[in-house]
Every structure is written in structure tokens, then in C-alpha cells.
Amino acid sequence: MKYLLTLLLLSLTISLTHASDIAEVWTSKRIQISYQSALQPIAINKMHHWIIEIKTLDGLAVEDANVQVTGGMPAHNHGLPTSPQVTEHLGEGRYRVEGMRFHMNGQWEIRISVKRDGLDELVTIPLVL
Amino acid sequence: MSKLLPILGFVLVTSLIIWFAVQLSQPATWSPEERQLLASLSLSSLQKLPADPSNHIADDLRAAKFGQQLFFDTRFSINGAVACATCHQPERRFADGLIRGVAIGQTDRNTPSVVGGAYSPWQYWDGRKDSQWSQALAPLEHPMEQGGNRLYYLRLVASFYKSTYEAIFGALPDLSDTNRFPLHAGPVDNADWRSNWLAMDTADQQTINRAFANLGKALAAYERRLLPGPSKFDDFVDSLGTKSVIFNAEEQAGLKLFIGKANCIQCHNGPLLTNHEFHNTGVETAPSELPDKGRIQGVRDVNLDEFNCRSTYADTAGHCAELQFARTGPELIGTMRTPSLRNLKNTEPYMHKGQLPTLIDVLRHYNEAPTAIIGHNEAKPLNLTLTELSQLEAFLHTLDAPIAAEDEWLTQPDLPQ
């Protein structure tokens, strides 16, 4: 029984570690960005917020950057229905982005521009709804 | 043998006809992905009526009844002949069936339905209002609609609805001092009334604005109860997986196109068949008019609106996510709000200026996707056949249904004399 429990705990730990390891990351030449949506799964026509995490490629948090979020549907040649904004710097390279909403199903692109003394990067995150 | 030939021919032709008939009556098959899309369009997926934090009496029954009286009371117009119900007629799904609304004069655009409006963050074709209550105030003072002014309306309330108003909102302002409160005053398109308004104390203006906003809030408390009822389409989706298929072959084919290659579902999505957003679909300019700027103007107007969510008259305490994150920019040039496709019957002609007389004209328009006069047309030509357009039309008619409100809300109530 003990053996079984240990095995169960071990497999749970491995799966959780694995889950955090595979948080998807998108990169530019100098930075990497991952995001977590407050709306899971992301559905159309619902305003929600994202927490984005910005790091340099070698893993250092990018703090106090000027972050702009835009996006759109390349196939339709139109943008997001809203103008999302960074409303809070949460520390450790994390930023709260409010005003996210998608109004169609299909292929979207979220473009995140990050500027901070000497750093001027653009990361594109593809998203299919 | 020669005698057998006509018989064989007859049998062959009859068999072919039967085979085609059987093929046509076969229900379409729906993949799991398609079923998911269909479920997302059904009224069964409609979320509970969203609260309106900007209107504290939005769900007050007394306010809804007062609002209904105001909605039908033609005394609430400068000529005593026009009410909200003049253009928003219950028997026409709260629209009017005209190219453009006709009240005191002709309005600028086609009359949109009120039904289901409580679900939209934006009102009007260009979204220049961000609540039902602030929208309801505008026609009262528009010279081509009800044509009055806020002091005039508040005196009507004092004459006919004082106790009703006060039971809901508290004391009506005392307007007996005509030096402080002129008979006619408001920031409206009338030089005398406007100068009377500008001569008033700021504090008195705010008192009047607050009471006037309350009329809008009562009207909205009524309007938000007007919701679409379940249609043949909803019955069809809800019965998928059982044997009770109630769509004919043409309607099913139309529905397949709607969620598939006709791309309608891109904008007409969700249970109200609208994403409540703004799109340029290259609809022709109305004859002898400049192109309509649409949302690019609407977003400026709503930000400057004296009764918007950020105003002191909203009960929101500054929580205005829609306004805060409203997008602007050249992409909005010539864009209009996606209308719901529920209840298209009796509401033709269509589009923001009533440019297209029938549904089939609308479908032909999307099939061609002409170049926009201003801005850019987001839609692409569909290259559908005439048969396919008819199938789409057949499907659209399955969205017609009675309004989901008791009869007492759909007729003129008793008005105090």
C-alpha cells in the first residue's frame, strides 16, 4: 500500500513539474514571453485578463518595461475588438493585461511590444479559437 | 421488346425521382465540431441577463412598469404625437419596417430592434451610447425624433407620474421657480432652449440631469425585459441527437453554409447571432449621401457623452471596462455594429440606412463583397450559387420567434390622465 501511495505521489509530482515546464513560451531575438489567461478555455465575446511573464532569453525577469499589447486576425485583416492595456506590474517580469477579448473564432495573433532602455522587442503569439 | 421500353423508361425515371427525393429528405450529418458550433448559437447557451451596474433600478419591477408607460406615452414628445413605440413597434419586433425611422422627422439611420439590447455593451449602429438608459435619453431630445428638452419632460413627469417617479427615485426636483428652471431648457439643437440651459446654475443643471437620467433608467428597466424567444432553430439544435429533426433539407443546407463556407458565423456568433462588434462590410452609401463614418465617430461620441458610464449619472462608481478598453483607430472607419439575426421577419429593409430591401438582397451583397467606399471591406466574395443563397435565406427564417415576454409587456399599458 505504502509503495502504491509513494508511486502515486511521485507520478503526481512528475506530472505537475512537467505541466509547469511545458508552459508555452514565445520568443524574439532577446526575450521570451509566456501567458496565462484568466478565462480557461478562452472563449469568444468575453472580456478577461491575461498575466504575461517576460524574461530575457537567459531567464532574467524583464521589469518595468513599457509593454503594449495589440493583435488581430491576419486572414481577415482586422485587429482586436478592444485595446488591451497593462494595468499592473506584478514583479518578477509579470504584467497584468486587462481588456482582452476576441470576437470571432479562427486564427489570431497577439503582438506584444516590450521596450526598456535599449530593449525594443516584438513577440508574436499565435492563438486558434 | 419495343413495348417494354417505355415501361422500363418509366420505371427508371420514377426510381430516379424517388432516389433524389430520398436524398433531399436525408437529414444532414453533423460532426462533433459542428454540433459544438450549433450549440453555441442556441438560446440554451444564452447566459443569464447581465446586470447593469450603471443602472441601480434596472431590475426593479416598478421601474420597468414606469418605463413601459414612458415608452408608449406620446405626450413625451414636443408635438404630443411620438413615443419610443412609434419606431420600436411590438408587432414589428420593436423595429418599424421603414428604410429609416420616421418620428417628428426622418432619422439618420434604419431603426434597430430593442429586443436583446441588454446584452450589448454598445447601443446604436455606431455604438455611440454605452448603456440602454443613456441611449433612451437621446431620442427624447433629438429634433427629428421626440424633439423636446429635459425641463419639458420633467414637467410632464410632475404632471402625470409624480408619485410613480418618487416611489422609485425619491423626490422629483421642485421646478416651480421658472427663473431657475425655465419651461424649456436643455443642451439641444434649439438656440433658445440651449441658451436657457447655459444660463442655469451648474448645480441646477446637475439636479435636472440626474432626474432626466432616471427617466432613461426606467425606460431601460422596461427594455431589458424584451428578449428573443426560442425559435425553430433552437428547437432543432436542442433536439439534435434525438429523432425529432424538425428542419427540412433546405434549412439544414442553409445552416451548414451559415456555419461553414458562407462565413456568416464569423460575426453573427453566439446565441444572439451577433458579436456586438463593429465591422465594415462594404455596404453601399445611401443615395445622395456621403459615406457614413460609423464607429470611428461613435467611439468619439461615446467617450464625450454626458451620460456615459464614467459620468456622475451612472451608478457604476467608475468601473467602465468597455469604455476603458474601447478600441479606436482608422480600422473603424465605416464600421457598424453587427445586428442580431433573430427575428428578421417584418423588420426589412436591412442595413444601417435600410439600403437593402430584402434578405436575398443582403445575401447577394455578401456573396459579392464589393469594395468599400470608405475604410476596407472585411468580407471576401463567397461565390455561392443562387440555390445556396436560397438555402441560407430558408435557414434565416428559422430564427423567427415570438418575443420572450408576457403579453402585458408587449402592448400599451394604462397611462395616467
Structure description:
Chain A has 129 residues and is an alpha+beta fold. In chain A, the strands form two sheets. A five-stranded antiparallel β-sheet of chain A has the order 1-2-3-7-6, with no helix packed on it. A four-stranded antiparallel β-sheet of chain A has the order 5-4-8-9, with no helix packed on it. The longest helix of chain A has 20 residues. Chain A starts with a helix and ends with a strand. Chain B folds into two domains: 193 residues, Cytochrome c-like domain (Cytochrome Bc1 Complex, Chain D, domain 2, Orthogonal Bundle), CATH 1.10.760; 167 residues, Cytochrome Bc1 Complex, Chain D, domain 2 (Orthogonal Bundle), CATH 1.10.760. With 417 residues, chain B is an all-alpha fold. Chain B has a two-stranded antiparallel ribbon. The longest helix of chain B is centred in the N-terminal third of the chain and has 22 residues. Helices cover 39% and strands 1% of the residues of chain B. The chains are: A alpha+beta (129), B mainly alpha (417). At the A-B interface, β5 of A face β1 and α13 of B.
Comma- or semicolon-separated keywords:
heterodimer; A: 129 residues; alpha+beta; 5-stranded antiparallel β-sheet; 4-stranded antiparallel β-sheet; 9 strands; 48% strand; B: 417 residues; mainly alpha; Cytochrome Bc1 Complex, Chain D, domain 2; 2 domains; two-stranded antiparallel sheet; 15 helices; 2 strands
Work out the helix count of chain B. Answer: 15
Low-pLDDT runs of 5+ residues of chain A are 12-21
β-strand percent of chain A reads over 45%
**Rg of chain A, nearest Å:** 17 Å
Domain tally of chain B: 2
SSE map:
The complex is a heterodimer of chains A (129) and B (417).
Chain A: H1 2-21, E1 26-27, E2 31-37, E3 48-56, E4 66-73, E5 78-79, E6 85-91, E7 94-100, E8 107-116, E9 119-128
Chain B: H1 4-25, H2 32-41, H3 61-72, H4 84-87, H5 132-141, H6 150-160, H7 162-169, H8 191-198, H9 202-223, H10 232-238, H11 249-259, E1 278-279, H12 295-304, H13 321-324, E2 336-337, H14 359-368, H15 386-397
Helix pairs in contact in B: 3-9, 5-9, 6-9, 11-15, 14-15
